[in-house]
Amino acid sequence: MDLAEALEKIMSGLSSGRTIIVVGSMHAHYAGRSTSWLAEGDRLLIIKSDKSILIHRPTGYEPVNWQPPGVVINAQITEEGLVLECSRKSPPEILRIVITEVYSAESYRLVDNGEFIIHAREEDMKAAIINSPDIVEPGLRIVETERRIGDEYIDILAVDSSGQIVIIEIKRKRATRRDVEQIVDYATQVEKELGRKPRKILVAPSISKEAASLSMVLRVEYKCFSPRLAYEILSKKKGLDRFL
Amino acid sequence: MDLAEALEKIMSGLSSGRTIIVVGSMHAHYAGRSTSWLAEGDRLLIIKSDKSILIHRPTGYEPVNWQPPGVVINAQITEEGLVLECSRKSPPEILRIVITEVYSAESYRLVDNGEFIIHAREEDMKAAIINSPDIVEPGLRIVETERRIGDEYIDILAVDSSGQIVIIEIKRKRATRRDVEQIVDYATQVEKELGRKPRKILVAPSISKEAASLSMVLRVEYKCFSPRLAYEILSKKKGLDRFL
DNA sequence: GCCTAGGTCCCGTAT
DNA sequence: ATACGGGGCCTAGGC
């Protein structure tokens, strides 16, 4: 396909809100949050209906260059080739794509209202614990979730059977040294605000060796719990709820 | 295009290491690190030559479902439609895609050896500081970079004009409270290992208000420096080097 | 706009 | 395999 024809496909696709797919040889230059040059090669260029842009190489999960939704696109043919200038104001950045050869250029009116449901996330762990605080510790009572202290958010604030405040930080993956530091920071903020030293419990499916030893020093407790288990508990409960 | 024809395109593309692009209506189920269901809708399916898989909706930067490179793909036609089972062992996960209608299915032999160069990253800031430590502070001498203490890495270890050890942590973006905690942690480790309290300098283009106040408390110093400036300094130096 | 925090983050790198 | 840290991370939510 020649460049003029491809430009026509792109322009009409852009104006009608279609998703555009161009396969061809191109190079690109990005300037903004960083600066990059991509030399000539065969790639897949996707321009979505919300004006998000992706340049994909033939390997790898990630696009090599891109723009998030909402850019302004200027397309024209110059002596260099089919030039697409994709820019936005905030942050100030521009992606300049030069297509020199087009193997295919098509646009599609895609209708996608399909629901997307995802589970076994940190959110499910939180829900399971709120529903059954005993998962963390018998006698625990939930006080507040997503409590904001300063600019920070504490996953769960609770009170234990002896009346002591408990901070709970949930992680869906193995807890790291950083996670331990995070909950200690929260505890410092809570103590400043409420005037009492809280207990600190890190809930995660596992904990790294270094994080475990740091948690000893900083008096952070660890409770094993996984997103998968949380999801199973919630599913069962939901299943039962149907019969109640 | 009918499903059988699309299957044929996919199979031949897979066996010849081509990049496959399917536009059509599909639904998908993922089970592994999390669990998700994507209901029927029009999407773009990409199977790259390294067997990375992407399902893109008509909007948004991110794929809604995906698999990183290296999955095993099983494709067949069932009563549900064209079913692709993409699985891997570690971590154990599977993405099952059911294509019910195909608008387009093509494969391309993409040749991409183009170099990709990126600048104005943290790495450039580090290089500029190593080259001219005065950027951080007059009289500073670099001792070591990427020093490993335990499992952690310290960006730059230096000595100031009075002979005191200095830890430098570089951030390409505005420094946060977490960044301050990180360098304090490094300092603790350094003190344990070397027996002397180091100075702590956070180098970043800016610092959040909360991070600034925390840095006062924890005796972390802040030095303003940006990836863009670092890149400009390095470019000039390189330009000069050509004439020396 | 800033700030926080999650993510099937991905990715490189070192042990 | 685990662990750590960067990324133009992106995205959502709050202020």
Question: Care to give the gist of this entry?
Answer:
Chain A has helices at 3-15, 122-131, 177-194, 209-217, 227-241, and strands at residues 19-31, 35-47, 53-56, 65-67, 72-77, 82-88, 93-108, 116-119, 141-149, 152-159, 165-170, 199-204, 221-224. By secondary structure, the first copy, chain A, is of the alpha+beta class. The longest helix of chain A is centred in the C-terminal third of the chain and has 18 residues, at 177-194.
Keywords:
alpha+beta; 244 residues; 27% helix; Protein Yojf, Chain: A; Trna Endonuclease, Chain: A, domain 1; seven-stranded antiparallel beta sheet; homodimer; DNA-binding
How does this model look, in words?
- Two copies of one chain form a homodimer.
- In chain A, strand 6 (82-88) and strand 7 (93-108) form a beta hairpin.
- The model of chain A has no long low-confidence stretch (mean pLDDT 96).
- Chain A has five helices and 13 strands.
- The radius of gyration of chain A is 26 Å and the shape is elongated.
- Chain A folds into two domains: 3-108, Protein Yojf, Chain: A, CATH 2.70.180.20; 122-241, Trna Endonuclease, Chain: A, domain 1 (3-Layer(aba) Sandwich).
- In chain A, helix 2 packs across helix 5.
- By secondary structure, the first copy, chain A, is α+β, with helices and mostly antiparallel strands.
- In chain A, strands 4-3-2-1-7-6-5 form a seven-stranded antiparallel sheet. Chain A has a five-stranded mixed sheet with strand order 9-10-11-12-13, sandwiched between helices.
- The interface between A and B is large, with 60 and 59 residues.
- Chain A binds a DNA duplex (15 and 15 nucleotides) through strand 4 and helix 3.
